[in-house]
Structure formats: C-alpha cells, structure tokens
Amino acid sequence: MEISPFLAKFWGWYLLIFFFILSFNPVRIKQIFDDLKDQKFQILAAFIAIVVGLLNILFHNIWQPDWRFIITLLGWASLLVGLGLFVFPASTTQKLQVVNVKLVQTIYFLLFLLGIFLLNMGYQIVQY
Question: Domain residue spans in the chain?
C-alpha cells in the first residue's frame, strides 16, 4: 500500500473522530485544557504528539504542491506542538489558555472538512 493514501485515511479518520467527540461532548474541550495544567498529562501528550509527528515525517515528507502536502503539514504540526509542550510547557500551555471552546469548535469544524477531503483522497470516492 502506498503511504500517502494510508496517511490520508489515518488523518481523515482521526480528524472526523475527534470532531464528533468534541461536538457531542464539548465539556471534553475544557477538560483537555484543564488537564494540560498537569505535568504528567503534558509529558504524555507531548510524547504521543512527537512520536506521531516524527513517524509521519519520516514516512511522508513530501513537499509537492498537491494534497499530499497537507499530510506533511499535519505531521510537522504534530511534531512542533509536541516539542512545544515538552520543551516549553508553561508558555505553550499559556498560549493554549487563550483559546476558548467556541474557537476550538470552529477550528474543529474546519478540520472536519479537511478530514472529509483527506478521506476522499485516501479512498478515491470522488475523482478529480
């Protein structure tokens, strides 16, 4: 299996699942921000983000101007957020405190659309 469609499916499903979780249970958004104040949670979240981002980058670091570039950006974003949480936990958490529930819901709606797009690219439902 080629890696680009696989990662398109992975990120597409990931974004859709989290969109529905956070849409039907918006209390989870506040809970995540509250949990980021706990150092153990920060380390675990940072570690997972770094591993996912690094694996994505190692297997798929494609800088072509097409849909595959989005997958590369998601990997780099994951790696950078993970490094930010791990190296600069206080400032990263402080920056995240500015974000409120409504803004997160708006961002996740945009990510939902991105997830639909990536699933389409992975499964080739609508041909371009």
Answer: 3-121
Query: What six digits make up the tokens of 112?
Result: 């939902």
Determine the distance from the C-alpha atom of residue 105 to the mean position of all C-alpha atoms in its chain, rounded to a whole number. 14
The sign of the dihedral angle between the CA atoms of 36, 38, 40, 43 is positive
Alpha carbon separation from 115 to 31, 38, 42, 67 (Å, rounded): 23, 30, 25, 12
Sign, CA dihedral 47-122-63-93, equals negative
Burial degree of 8 (CB within 10 A; 0-12, 13-18, 19+): buried
Total-model pTM: 0.88
Mean pLDDT split into 10-residue runs, the chain, 128 residues: 92 94 85 86 94 97 95 96 91 74 82 96 88
